[in-house]
Amino acid sequence: MNYALIFKGHDFAYEVQAIAKIFIPGVRFQLCRDDEIPTAENQIVTAINAERIDINILMHGKCLNDSCQCPEENAQQEYLLCRMLYQSLQLLTGYQPPWGMLTGIRPVRKVLDQLEQGFAPEQVCQTLQEQYLISDQKMQLALQTALIQKKILPHSPKQIGLYISIPFCPTRCSYCSFVSHSIQSAKNLIPAYIAKLCEEIAILGTLIRKYQLSVQSIYIGGGTPTAISAQQLSSIMQTIQENIDLCQVQEYTVEAGRADTITKEKLQVIRQMQADRISINPQTLQDAVLQKIGRCHTAQQVIDAYQLARQLGFDNINMDLIAGLPSDTYEGFADTLRKVIALHPDSITVHTLTLKRSADLYGSKQNTEISIVEKMAALSAQILPKSNYQPYYLYRQKNTIGNLENVGYAKPGKENIYNILIMDDRQTILGAGCGASSKIICQDNIVRVMNYKFPYEYISRFSQLMEKKIQIETELEKLA
What we know:
alpha/beta; 9-stranded mixed sheet; 3 domains; globular
């Protein structure tokens, strides 16, 4: 199905497209300006002149028009145009998005901004719901998350986070959108990759000492870091130990990830190298679904890996779940949720699957799929707080089913500092490894320096990559 967005007399193309994607996700729109003639049969025309804002929609044989007087201020024009489009598409589709008009990835940021200005929680909810048409349930979720984050966020500009990328997995899961590579296809690159990664960690350690920075949190992610051998993992963590003052680190996470990569030897390495938080991520505890998404392990192996980690003394374990996995059902997700809660992990993160294909909300199949995933997310928000897990961080991704969210729930005192601060965009994060980025924050200015995406490029162009450290150092000088 083809769709065209036609813009006349304004420059709000990005904003209009963001609203349209709430109702028509996963499609590539034909974009036309003024007198350009669209070829798509479904058209959304937005027009602004000195007197009026007009919207004309022709979709699936249905027509809808709306207009209003045009205000003078540019920001008001943008808001009115988007609100009119939102309400028109809602009327045409019959779909009521739970997050309303909010399209950004950080809805909690809007709540925090108002709380920091001194507004009471009730005022914040009323203002944001009136402005963005957010549902009561999502507004309360955002407020609860913000109130927990508000206690954790204050930090010194000299405190930073450190991210280490190990972008390898045993196999690639069917839903995965991360830059990761199977061990089998990349095994010849791994020794050289680890050598360069350790070299980069040492360089970052030198910069951290030079500018008297304090590493507040370390996060080793991927990929699946435990996909490499215990000896390889040990060499990376040994390099971290030699170059970073771990006495100042409040939180040190290793994503153990998939059960088919977790061994007693690897968990012992993680413990010995002073990491105090791990993730064991089932995504689901339904064997048929695990097989469908390309996971080479069973639900029982996940439980066994979790129990082994507890026996070895890990007292801060996170488990990830995904709502909306292929072939999963509401009943299957509910069963997984109950089984995970019964294990008593310290935190549970509930992700919503992102769309990878063209989707059309006019189709009954898609409406049904969104409804089921919304129920999965709602069940999580209902059951987890009753089991003493409170929402502590929340973000959304592009093309997420139902415009929904990813939420981290944790027991009190087990909130993941790194996750909160990277989502808040107010702490400097230095990244090492392919696909990693460094984000330097000085006052309200954010400078991002990206590493190469793929292991072979990271290895072969390492000297050029190190030239980027000059840019990082220039920005770090401003923090001194």
